[in-house]
Structures are given as C-alpha cells and as structure tokens.
Amino acid sequence: MNNLTLEKDLHIHPKHCGPNLFTIATQQLYSEVEGTCTGRYGFIITITSVDFLSKGKVLESSGYVVFNVKYKAIIFKPFKGEVLDAIVTKVTNLGFFAEAGPLSIFVSTQLIPSDMIFDAQSAVPCFVSEDGSSKISKDDEVRLQIKGTRVDATEIFAIGSIREDYLGVIG
Questions:
Q1: pLDDT in tens, 134-169
Q2: C-alpha span between 124 and 115 (Å, rounded)
Q3: For the chain, which terminal residue's Cβ has fewer other Cβ atoms within 10 angstroms, N or C?
Q4: Which tens digit of pLDDT belongs to each residue from 15-58?
C-alpha cells in the first residue's frame, strides 16, 4: 500500500452551488474515487486529504462548475513476488480463488504443493495434504505469493502460488 498524490477535475451540478459547495464537492470526490481501480495506480482504497486547487470554472454549455482537485489517497497495486494474506473464496479441481482486499487471485493446481490433492468426495470442495495435516477450503486464510498480474483499464487480476516455503494455510 502506498500513499500517492493524485489530481482530478470534479464536475459539480449547478444546484449544489451554495454555502455547502465544498462539502458536497468533497463527498462527490469520495464517491467517485474511493473503491475504484485504475490500471496506472491500482486500487484506490481511501482518500486521506483533499485540496481544491482552483476556484472553479463554470462551463457555459451545461452550467456545471469544474474544480481542479488534488487529493492524497492510499492505493494498493500488487506486484510480482509480493506475499499477501488472502481469504479463499472458491475451490475447484483446477485450483482455488482467493481475495486480498479488492484483488482477486487464482492459484492453479500447478502452483499448489504436489502433496496436496483435490478432494472431490468431501462435503465441501477442498485440497488436502496426503497426511491430512493441511486442508484448503472456502473461507480459509492463506498466505500466497503473486506470480503475475494482468491489468485492465478498471481491474487487476493476479496469479498466485503457495508452492514456496512459509506459504499456504495460516493457522
């Protein structure tokens, strides 16, 4: 997680021009930006501070007021080799899906230790070690390493591994 300073042009409807303009503009910034994902910066988790750089310009065509806003935000952009704790959301015979905050991670069977096999006979789909000491099923917490990411304009997907030392089920 990093703290970055970002800029945005904020368009405010004319009906909001009044004594609460900056409060409404700040609320609009929070609702437009928090929880979004950009390919360039990653997931914007939360805004920590807001500075209005301009007094605002009225667009003659629509009447909207445009403010240039500079804000600081905590962002999350995963990188190759990063180790994360995640919650398993789905287990299939091809591997399992996990989530680390807003990031969706797939761990394929090739990146799960070879002593763990998919147990299709159990009531809940899971991977179980040969000696039965370790089990991965839905809602388990795992520590994994990011092996690669794919960045779209509004989403980031990751491939993970638990095939290294100190990775796997936590607890």
A1: 999 999 999 999 999 999 888 899 999 999 999 999
A2: 19
A3: C
A4: 988 888 889 999 999 999 999 998 889 999 999 999 887 788 99
- CA atoms of 4 and 161, how far apart (whole Å): 29
Give, as one character, the DSSP assignment of residue 167. -
d(CA 168, CA 165): 9
Kind plus residue range of the DSSP H or E element containing 33: helix 21-33
Amino acid 163: pLDDT: 95
- 3-state SS, residue 84: strand
What is residue 74's predicted lDDT score, i.e. its pLDDT?
Answer: 96
Task: Decide: helix, strand or coil at residue 26.
Answer: helix
pTM for this model (two decimals): 0.85
User: Residue 120: what pLDDT?
Assistant: 85
- The C-alpha atoms of residue 60 and residue 154 are separated, in whole angstroms, by 31
In contact, 45 and 76? CB cutoff 8 Å = yes
Are the beta carbons of 76 and 151 closer than 8 angstroms?
no
Return all residues near 170 (Cβ < 8 A) that are at least 6 apart: 85, 141, 142, 143
CA angle 144, 99, 44 (to 5 degrees): 110
Phi-psi region of 149 (alpha: psi -120 to 50; beta: other; left: phi over 0): beta
